[in-house]
From TrEMBL:
Location of the Nuclear receptor domain: 12-88
CDD domains tied to this protein: NR_DBD_HNF4A
Gene Ontology terms: cellular component: nucleus
Predominant cellular place of this UniProt entry's protein: nucleus
UniProt-annotated location(s): Nucleus
Transmembrane regions listed in the UniProt entry: none
Record keywords, A-Z: DNA-binding, Metal-binding, Nucleus, Receptor, Transcription, Transcription regulation, Zinc, Zinc-finger
GO MF assignments: DNA-binding transcription factor activity; RNA polymerase II cis-regulatory region sequence-specific DNA binding; zinc ion binding
Family per similarity comment: Belongs to the nuclear hormone receptor family.
Top-level taxon in the UniProt lineage: Eukaryota
Annotated protein name in UniProt: Nuclear receptor domain-containing protein
Amino acid sequence: MILNETKDEIKNCPCKVCGNKAHGIHFGVISCRACAAFFRRFIVLNLEYVCLKDPEKCDVDINRRNSCRHCRFQKCLTVGMTTDNVQFNRDVYLYDKEGRKPKKKTSKSTSSCSVEVIEVIEEVPSTSLQNMEVVLQENVYRATVLEECKNIDIRVKCEKIFQSGYPNIYEDLGNMNFLEKVAFGLEKLRADQEVIDINFDNRLSYDNLVPHWASVSTKLANLFMHSWAFRNIHPYEQTRIFRYVWKTLYRLERLQMTVKIFGEKCVDEKKIIINCKRAIQLDALFMDIEGISREKKKFTLTEYKKYAHRLIDEIAKPLCKLDLSTIEVAYMLCICCQYNEEYFFGNNVTPVTDVFQDQIGENLHEYYKSIGIINYAPRVKLIMSIIINMKRIHYDDFLGNLVYPPGIFDIEKCTHQ
């Protein structure tokens, strides 16, 4: 009966879950895109929530739909949403504007989608960045906050960035939506990325690892400051969440950049770009660390390669099926951040992140609409499957601790081992 309703009738109907304006029929029910996206994430990521058992918060409506996510999901089921149409893993290639699948491209081909997206990002108004005072502020910030750290507690360094209030996402980036702000920060993080003159250095030592991780973590902290949700939670929660998720987001971002530059060669030749100027080849890696026994070096290197190979097979390989734009990468990082550490988020954090998640979902929809991609659901599904793989690897190697130097948030511990 629902399927026979006209588009005009659907357009004038409220969402059956929260009462907001409906956008269409999703999973068999007239609903808004936010509730449809929530239902999809809940099923695909196999999430579980405990009911708040609060009569006020458990009453799901447009104002309280993000309060009790257990009751929101139960209401989705009650109104008739079905999991039959939720697709988990699917061989998805880039679709054209009419939703047709083009011929599979080779590793040498260059997609026009990424070119279009870069142009879209550059067209976003950013008049404040042309202001000399803001440019001067950025130069001072980079000189004092983003320089390479040596023998400095990274936690303190990152907290300094969180407390800096830079950039001013309300004034400097006021013309951008939530997702565009994160994409803008991602563009800045990648601004110095080498494409041709990348140095392959397969030597692992504290001399190059410690400053590398210090630099990477502080740059990621700067990226986090472009997120509205991150800036609207308590400073203690900022440090706690960042400490748990930054390594995973670093891996995901670098793997996507590796695919962007090397294409399918990164899978065949086991290459990973680890920063803007350096890459490694897994089969040629060796450790050069004094004070560690040969057996421990062998074990550490074996573990390093074990998870690095998984990253290539389970993350880089499916990323090759997509030619992700900067906006899409920003969306993937945001969702990965919020759901890769689901059990670490408290009740004082989840309302903010839920609002942010709904908003960037709307931003992504508007982005696809602006570039003429109609059938984008398969792309989002594949992105979600990549996030699931990333989460699995993250937990399998104990939150990243086997692949990274111990005590990365305390550089002095690393340098004295």
